[in-house]
Amino acid sequence: MGISLLTSWPEPVQRVQLLAESGLQHVPAQYIRPPAERPHLHISPAAAAAAAPTSPLAKSCSRPQQGGSDSGNIPILDMEDLDSGDGERREAFLRDLGRACEEWGFLQIRNHGVEEAVMEGVRSTAGAFFKLPIAEKQVYANDPVTYQGYGSRLGVSKGAVLDWGDYYFLNVLPSSSRDVTKWPTNPPLWRHMMEEYCKQMERLSKKLLQAISLSLNLECTRSLEEAFGEIDMGVRINYYPPCPQPELTLGLSPHSDPGGLTLLLQDFKVAGLQVKALSTSSWVTIPPILGALVINLGDQLQILTNGRYKSVEHRVVANSNCERLSIACFVNPGNSTVVSPIPKLVPKNELPAYNAMTFNQYRSFIRRRGTNGKGHLDSIASPTSLTPQTINNQA
Ligand SMILES: O=C(O)CCC(=O)C(=O)O
Ligand SMILES: [Fe+2]
Question: Which positions fall inside the Fe2OG dioxygenase domain (predicted)?
Fold first, then answer.
């Protein structure tokens, strides 16, 4: 891992929103994925008709524009079952949670306690930022050292295929990691909404970590929180403009999230997020559900659980007629926390499946290389658990 950090992007940064707004009819070459990585969109004549400019946006956007299965069985859990005081409902919730973490690495939750007004507030102020004049947004342009601010690419590999999306990334916790100069002052409510949203997300993430600890039968409800150490939290607002040729590109390349737990507020009008089902390796769309949150496990939880719970590859498909906005809150182990499998989860007489590493080391590795499916996690699997294929992939 002896590659030094680049302090600026390897090529001039293009804002995808500007490209989209220029009215171009073809996706520029650097956004075109090799045929095997394209999303195989099947746009039916009916969907194409619905996409005509005169049709109501919400009608044509709510339908996923994709091939493969529609929603599969990505579990939807009701957090009231956890809080109800009814022992059986609680047990069933923990069992379903454990199964979701093992079989999908993804779930949706309802009745999670995050106020609707706060979700709506953060969504609308975050969206309003992207509508500001470009010069105002450029003041917050980010760099590949901290990633904080207004960005358009992940990773610094020169010549990499780019994603059809812009984003805004911020460190939120610990407070010492915040760069307040990167917190927009316009829209005026932006800071307040983000602060409130993140507070509620932090509370919810702790509750989820406790529930996940219980689902694993760990000694103590706080086992995972303790393994995380001081929580590191970041938030990324993803903005995907409409795309003239969504069948050639992706809004976000396949990746697993590097951290602990991701709490995602999807765009409730526009589908686009897809998960690579562990059972079939096919891409499954996560349907937007108003008021629900998508929860997914990151690589650090796969490491801590010695591979029992999974961080699963996901991607975002672009959309020909609708913009899409999502807000991902990444809850991670502390920067200097050394993460390795929890001993109780390593079978007797076996070596841990992953080598120990601080979260900071892991993250900087990914920030240099950009998204790479699950290749980063495979690369720290301990030699005993490497398959010939993963070894070849690392070469
Ligand atoms: O936009 C989405 O729905 C997913 C975003 C995502 O996977 C991420 O920000 O890591
Ligand atoms: Fe992600």
Answer: 231-333
Asked if residue 380 lies in contact with residue 348, where contact means CB atoms within 8 angstroms, the answer is no
Q: Is the CB of 374 under 6 A from ligand 1?
A: no
Q: Please name the residue whose Cα sits nearest to atom 6 of ligand 1.
A: 328
DSSP H or E stretch at residue 130: helix 116-130
- Residue 78 domain-assigned (yes or no): yes
Centre of ligand 2 from the C-alpha of residue 264, in Å: 9
pTM of the model: 0.90
Asked, for residue 28, whether it belongs to a domain, the answer is yes
* CATH for 120: 2.60.120.330
Range of the domain at 264: 3-44+60-394
Q: Is residue 267 within 6 Å of ligand 1 at its C-beta?
A: no
Paired with 275 in beta bridges are 284, 314
Phi, psi of 3 (to 5 degrees): -95, 130
CA of 188 to the centre of ligand 2 (A): 28
Q: What element of type H or E holds 167? A: strand 166-173
Task: List pLDDT tens digits, range 249-287.
Answer: 999 999 999 999 999 999 999 999 999 999 999 999 999
**CA-CA-CA-CA dihedral for 362, 363, 367, 368, to nearest 10:** -30
Phi-psi bin for 164: left (phi > 0), alpha (psi -120 to 50), beta? Answer: beta
